[in-house]
Amino acid sequence: MPSPTILHGSHNYFVAGGSDRYFFELSRLLEQRGHKVIPFCAADSRNEESEYARYFPRTANSENPTPADAFRFIYSRSAHRNISQLLSEQQPDIAHLHIYYGKLTASILPPLTDSGVPVVQTLHEYKLLCPVYTCVRDERICEDCGGKQFWKATAHRCNRGSLVRSLASSIESYTSNLLGNRDRIDHFIGVSHFMTEKMRSIGIPEDKLSTVHNFVDTSRHEAARAEGDYLLYFGRLEATKGLFTLLEALRETPGLRCIIAGSGPALDSLRATAERYGLTNVEFPGFISGEKLHDLVRGSICTILPSEWYENCPMSVLESLALGRPVIGARIGGIPELINKGVDGLLVEPGNAAQLAAALCELGENPAAAARMGAAGREKVQREFSPDVHYAKIQAVYDRVLG
User: Fold this and answer.
1) Residue 123: which CATH number?
2) How far is Cα 394 from Cα 122, in angstroms, rounded to an integer?
3) Which residues face 93 on adjacent strands?
4) What CA–CA distance (Å, rounded) separates 389 from 371?
5) Is residue 337 part of a domain?
6) Spatial contact of 145 and 131, defined as CB atoms under 8 Å apart
7) Which of 116, 315, 356, 397 has the maximum number of C-beta atoms within 10 A of its C-beta?
8) Are residues 270 and 282 both part of a single domain?
9) How many structural domains is the chain composed of?
10) Alpha-carbon distances, residue 326 vs 214, 216, 260, 380 (angstroms)
11) Are residues 90 and 28 in the same domain?
12) 88-104 per-position pLDDT tens digit
């Protein structure tokens, strides 16, 4: 039996974040396993080349929106029209969606189900629960909307503090719900057990839910060969990442050097806080990517993810382990699912600077032990988070919805 043809849908056909990277990695994996993969994404000058680009619809400009963009954010006529044409001409066997709202919008769901195409969605964030996707308000965890009362996002101005943007987010959530963002999806894939449980808590039926964590190809991640000599955070610089708590912890560990690599809205404030604390053991080298980032991870004793929001399945943890470095992570969201405490990393309570300082000392002052934990982490990634394991789980979902 030939492998099913996959319509692979997401908002971007370029890499702007972790979900985009996963979209391309999964496309590559599916093609390697013999599937024909047809992308359906928003038109954008930054897109990678694709023979299917003619189907990509014009979508809303979220950075400098016009009144027409506000409507496109809620319902995209061009996405509805273009996916209808694609379905007629390409006839995929199954649709696998990722982040489609905001650009493609839920306008694409009725054509899919009306054409008899089963629909699977991988959930990278908390959109069904929260109109702004993050379950964060005023830099704190918030679940007030609860997957139903989306008007609260407007009342609290959750979208960038803007009443207009927040109103658009609330209306979009109600509209998407009416268009079937629950009912027209045959199966949801959470990338953490935490995400799957959150979806169960808002009424998604058990038989429509599976967990499939992200994956890492260790053949593309050379493992560290020596002990490291600094602590490392890498990723986006935001308050909800727990970086101010990290700076507090570093006040108690002046003998440990720490690199905080990345860019984001908290960078200036983090630098100012480090200066105010008199921290001479902290460096901010900016955004680093590719092999330079891999080298930075391999040179570390361990990496740190002290988040204070619901991280889902952070690739920074899996990539650190794949490179042979243990992780100190916060016990929140999906992070604890990726770290075996005392084996390939340590877990601390989010926002607890004293616990974090103790963990930094435990690994930072014992680089040989940290190296052994990193080696155990790489073995775990090869065993549990490999491309082969991932594909088998994805294929099982496809088989289930295809009957």
Assistant:
1) 3.40.50.2000
2) 10
3) none
4) 25
5) yes
6) yes
7) 356
8) yes
9) 2
10) 18, 15, 16, 11
11) yes
12) 999 999 999 999 998 99
- Token reading at 204: 């998604």
∠ CA 154-156-158, nearest 5°, is 75
Residues 205 and 288 in one domain: no
Burial of residue 217 (number of CB atoms within 10 Å: 0-12, 13-18, 19+): middle
**Within-domain flag for 52:** yes
pLDDT reading at 64 higher than 60: yes
| Joined tokens for residue 90 | 């390409």
Of the pLDDT bands very low, low, confident and very high (cuts 50, 70, 90), residue 81 is very high
Q: How many residues does the chain have?
A: 403
Output the CA torsion 65→67→71→73 (10° steps): 10
Give one DSSP letter per residue of 16-59, joined into a string: SSHHHHHHHHHHHHHHHTT--EEEE----TTPPP-TTGGGPPP-
Instruction: Tell me the one-letter amino acid at 245.
Output: T
Can you tell me the distance from the alpha carbon of 13 to that of 41, in angstroms, rounded to the nearest whole number?
6
pLDDT digits (tens, 9 = 90+) for 137-183: 998 999 999 999 999 999 999 999 999 999 999 999 999 999 999 99
- Do 267 and 292 fall within a single domain? yes
Report residue 173 as tokens: 């959530």
User: Cα angle vertex 117, ends 115, 120, to 5°?
Assistant: 145
Beta-ladder partners of 189 = 122, 210
Please state, in angstroms and rounded to a whole number, the distance separating the CA atoms of residues 224 and 205.
43
d(CA 200, CA 353): 32
Provide the residue range defining the domain that includes 65. Answer: 6-128+181-215+386-402
Q: Quick one: how far is CA 378 from the chain centroid? A: 21
The span from the CA of 297 to the CA of 369, in Å, is 16
Q: Which long-range contacts (CB under 8 A, 24 or more apart) does 175-181 make?
A: 175/74, 175/75, 175/106, 176/101, 176/105, 176/106, 179/75, 179/106, 179/107, 179/109, 179/110, 180/106, 180/109, 180/110, 180/113, 181/101, 181/106, 181/109, 181/128
Alpha-carbon distance of 314 to 322, in angstroms, equals 13
> Do 290 and 260 belong to one domain?
yes
